[in-house]
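User: I would dearly like some help making sense of a protein record. This is the protein in question:
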Amino acid sequence: MNLDRIVERFKRCSEPKKRYEQLLWYAKKLEPMPEAAKTPANKVNGCVSQVYITADLKDGHLWYQGDSDAQLVKGLVAFLIEGLNGLTPAEILALSPDFIEETGLKMSLTPSRANGFYNIFQTMQKKALGFQIGTSS
């Protein structure tokens, strides 16, 4: 699973500076999100910066897009998109946010950013739940 690979990559970074560099690298790789998708319905609540997440279901698998006005947060968004894209709604809902602790990022991030990371993940799970409810009928 992509998420496991990404978490391992961050676990190997012992220095907070290296973790930041890794996040900024993810931010640069993030596909641009269409401006039209940056609507209140796609906004992540509980983040200090502006964060948007969309999700599409294709052949039973979720594909996210996202953006943020802050580079570091954009890196967190990219990290989650890279880690969760292509999974089924059930797989995403089964994930525990423990992987966030495992990355060691929580120690490197300010409390509001760490909280934002959880909020972004929870928003992605809520979108997955919406698709699961929609497809399980």
The helical segments are 2-12, 16-29, 71-84, 89-94, 98-102, 105-108, 111-135.
